[in-house]
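In this supplementary section we document a worked example of the pipeline. Step one takes a protein sequence of length 429 as its only input; no multiple sequence alignment statistics are reported here. Step two produces a three-dimensional model, which step three serialises into structure tokens for compact storage. The input and output of this example are shown verbatim.
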Amino acid sequence: MTKATQLADQLTEKTVLGEWFQPMDRALDKVRFQDKKFTSLPMRAFTLFGCLRQVQSIPSVREMIQSLFHINEHAIQPPISRSTLCDAYASNCRRDILIEAVNQLIKQAQGRLPDKLAGVEGLGERAVIATDATYQAESCHYYPVSPSQGGVDNKKGHQHLTHFDMRTGIPLMSLIETESMAEIRLLREGGRRGESDCMGIKAAIHVADRAFIDAAYWDKKKSKLNSTLITCMKSNLNYALNKQRSLHQMDCNQGVVSDYVITLDSSNKPWRLIKFIAPDAEEYLYLSNDFDLEPGVIAFLYHRRWDLEKYFDNFKHDMANAKAWGKAREAIEQQNFLAIATYILMRLFIEKKSNELGMTQGDTTQQKKHLSKQENYVAHNIGIAYHAFYTSLSKVTRQMWRFLKNCFLKKSALPLYKRQFKPLVERYL
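The serialised model returned by step three reads:
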């Protein structure tokens, strides 16, 4: 048994971290690989240490090894060397195994987490996927050269183009690109691994900002897969009004002023232009090629796209992803998938513990603000019904990250969760 395996067993033996990591253990069990290829750092230990690094938000490999060394007070040497961990991050084989395991973890989460869009008119069983990009600073070991300097590196950093399941509130996939490339081009062409599987889902509703407007691309997706787009209108997009659609008197259509069929100069297919006025009198224009959804549902889904931004907030500020862990593409990709795994594990853990403790709200942010919206709507008919009652956000609050950071080595027991987990959530709410 390697030192890394011994430490991994110590970290997970009846501990909070062990219970938190259980879904990933099950996911790894469903992936076929030969662990004997990884003699000094088995795959389970590698994944566990990577997720723990995300939880502890440790920026450097050296600091990570020191933190693992200090866990065992009787250890004479660190459980792994710096070169072993760096080589593991740069491994193609480990990356492929990790991606398969994360896909298995996603399936678990989609089967266990509640549907945040249940009851929204007209959605049925259709997948609702938000897409956006965030940028990550280069590793300190790499000196980028941008196109203006004669190179190909993106001056913003590494682009992470992420697909996010708006029903369960979890990331599904990220395309990584280190070269300077427009976000819509990366979406169309895919990364080195090809187009994301999320873009091949039939009848999906894709929600993206105006940077992803490419009418011809989305026309093809609708013709081939019946997948549609919801986005925000560009001010410089040329179009002609055709006819106005009638508005149904439904709660979901509150705030909708008009719903027009339009013709875009860049498309030979019909599109919709929806005008929506929020309670604060702010005016919004939404563009979509979906003719089945009510206009208010289109406006609402675009509003809920902010769940993905909340994930990006966790990704950069609560986990260890403000800067890349290495300069190799494989290291950047593995860091990204370890972040996805860590976030999903946290969501599953919070859901499980909230149910065990009888907490109906779970880890919900801004609850007082939403309660105020509901009271105003019921008492005075002020606001938008959907905004008032479909309130469950996906962000993991900082209190939950702190709980795991401080308690991951403690024995997993119900009194601990009653004493420390439950008050953190309730007092925050």
